[in-house]
Amino acid sequence: MKKIKLIALLVAFGSMVAFAQSPNTLTDKEKKAGWKLLFDGNSFSGWHNFKSDKIGPAWKVSDGAMYLDTTNKKDWQTMGGGDIVTKDEFENYEFTVDWKIEACGNSGIIFNVVEDPKYDYVWKTGPEMQVLDNACHPDAKIDKHRAGNLYDLIESKTISVHPAGEWNQAKIISNKGHLELWLNNVLQVETEMFTPEWEALIKGSKFKNEPAFGKAKKGHLALQDHGNQVWFRNIKIREIK
Fold first, then answer.
1. How far are the Cα atoms of 15, 40, 68, 138, 234 from residue 37, in angstroms, in the given order?
2. What is the model's pLDDT at position 4?
3. pLDDT in tens, 171-201
4. What's the rounded Cα separation, in Å, for the pair 110 and 107?
5. DSSP state of 150
6. Structural domain for 174, as ranges
7. How many CA atoms lie within 13 A of 234 on its CB side?
């Protein structure tokens, strides 16, 4: 019980520090370290829908955050929505983004995405850090499908997600095959990609029949339309040389 309370306090303190800075800005220290903003807080400059040069009208910007308006939901995605990706590709990097999700919502942060006509969705190639309301979305009952997990590949043993409607800070570090996923300053997943063990994880997952999944060593970063309202801000990246 004491350990759980300590983790909760550390998560809360870390979140207070992370969100003390004005959204969508870089400090002098961050600039010196090589950080770049991928979202200016006002526009979708540097982003587009997967396999398109435009952004669907369901993606909007308000109060310094980009969000998905799911008023016109169709099947499991949104009319005028769809997954969005960065204009640029990245290989070795540290990436951070704040997110919040509606009650019982589902979304994802997908990386190393290959944008090619032969792939219908970003998840055909890119692994995903899960974005989820653990309290009531059905996926929360499935191992490896909870917030912060490497979706359907590795389950985190520590839960640090905040409730629906509250901001979370996600961090992905991908450096020469070494992968770390962090949520609210708590390490969720650490693994090595592009190894026999990595291939075994894929073969044991729902992606086993996707020949290009998890193979790319660089690619686009993507934010998923899974038919639920979701918000993103403070999207930053530092390329590792």
1. 19, 7, 20, 34, 8
2. 47
3. 999 999 999 999 999 999 999 999 999 999 9
4. 10
5. B
6. 2-239
7. 18
C-alpha span between 16 and 11 (Å, rounded): 9
For residues 37 and 237, what is the distance between their CA atoms, to the nearest angstrom?
A: 7
44 three-state secondary structure = coil
Which residue type is seen at 175?
Answer: N
Cα separation, 87 vs 1, whole angstroms: 46
Q: Name the one residue in this structure whose structure tokens are 């993606």.
A: 59
Q: How many domains does the chain have?
A: 1
In the numeric block, the tokens 């769809």 are attached to 82
Percent helix, strand and coil across the chain, each rounded to 5? 15, 35, 50
CATH number at residue 124: 2.60.120.560
Residue 84 in tokens: 């969005």
pTM here is 0.91
Q: Return the sign of the alpha-carbon dihedral for residues 222, 40, 102, 156.
A: positive
